[in-house]
Input
Amino acid sequence: MNSPGSPRDILRLSVSIVVYRPNMPLLSETLSSLADACVQLKMAVPAVSVDLFVVDNGGLPDITSSLEKMREAGACCTVLSGHGNVGYGSGHNLAIERSASDYHLVLNPDIDIEPNALATALRFLEENLDVGLLSPCIKDEARQLQYLCRRYPTVLDLFVRALPSDGPRRLLAKRLARYEMRDRINERDIVWDPVIVSGCFMLFRTVVLKKVGGFDPRYFLYFEDYDLSLRAGRVARLVYAPAVRVVHHGGGAARKGSAHIRMFTVSAFKFFNRFGWK
Output
């Protein structure tokens, strides 16, 4: 994998995972799949270094054994702790500030990465120097496609998507499908310049991520990825690259209880106040 630009002695990848009282089986699966992907990346790019930052916002047990496979894959692993629960975006910023990489992966602790995903993604970025942020094909546990790229939302779009009942959602299915880009997103076609991509897997060119200042710390949880996508799109291209594949075990705010619904609503107000109400 050779860059079309200036030659480098080594390709550097950093990864940040923010956890708060994590589901340890899911986190262990994520770390295991990341290690497998790093092994495949090393086979494709022998001169590669990987720095993993696990950011402990609270409740993380000793994960020495879970990190062993990453270390065997050649990664340098760092656990950042002691800062308290600073929120999702601010947690990632602690790692981003320490990264000195060519590419930085923002990764959720509930993602399984296919073994060739990192090699495929970095090859794409090395060949497309105008791309600053890559989003993969994301499937759920049943291996059904998740439509996590977005057009700019309206308040109604967010309300419909958050409804726990399928009945009202069916009545507004066309509206929801447009918001979720179901007319564009599939398992085959590259989609250039989606407005918003999911924060569960965001692979950045690090210079772009640092240029926009990382995540906005005003969001404690939710909408920080919407905000960052819009700001990244001002300075570089975004791309949905379906050849890069992951499985997402996460769910929506409405299924996580009233506290998450409140945080979702607060963050939505911050987002619309900054970027405009529709």
Notes: Residues 2-6 have pLDDT under 50 and may be disordered. The longest helix spans residues 24-44.
